[in-house]
Every structure is written in structure tokens, then in C-alpha cells.
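Ticket #4471: structure export looks truncated?
Reporter: QA, pipeline team
Priority: medium

Steps to reproduce: submit the single chain below to the structure queue and open the exported record.
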Amino acid sequence: MPTALTIPAAHYAAVRDLAIFDGTGARPQFLVDGEKLKVLVAALEPGQRIPAHPETLAVYYFLEGDGVMTVNDETIPVAAGAAIIAPAGATRGMEAASQLVFLAAKAGN
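Actual output as written to the record:
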């Protein structure tokens, strides 16, 4: 039988406010940093990017701004309210056109 995730209860009234804009790139702020699940909020300044890289299953939800996200060979415009599901092993990256804030939930290894 699989073991249950043990994550303490938490409440974030304004997740967007946890995002840190940094001239050097994304600085993820982890809401959950577990072995089987990671949930983070991150921010990019206009023109900043996260290079394409393969990763585990992840769901991205965009809280603010706009830009593009690439999953494998597909480039998808994103804006506040958009959600992207990137399957396990898919290559993904993004670039901000304006200040971009997103929430990501990723399966552990």
C-alpha cells in the first residue's frame, strides 16, 4: 500500500505576495518541499527565462503577467488564469513578456 503524504496544514492568504522578483532570474519560494510533491511560487522579470529542461509531471498556474511557455516543441502563450500541464519527461521552459508570477506543483522523483 502506498504511503500517504505527510504535509502540515498551511494557509496562504496571498500566494502572489510570496513571489520574489530578482534581476538574476527565478527564485522559487516553496510552499511544499516534499520528496513526493513540490509546490512553489516564482516570478520572472520581463525578458527573463527558464531554459527548456526535462522534468517530472508538473502543473503550472499563472497568477500575473504574460509570456510564453514551451512544452516539448509547442510554444503556448500564457497570461493570468492560464494553466499548463507538462507530462513527466516533457521538456519545458518559459519566458516572461511582462512581470510573470506562477504557481507550480510538481511530482517528486
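Status: closed, not a bug. The export was complete when the record was re-opened. Leaving a note from the reviewer for reference: The longest strand covers residues 37-44.
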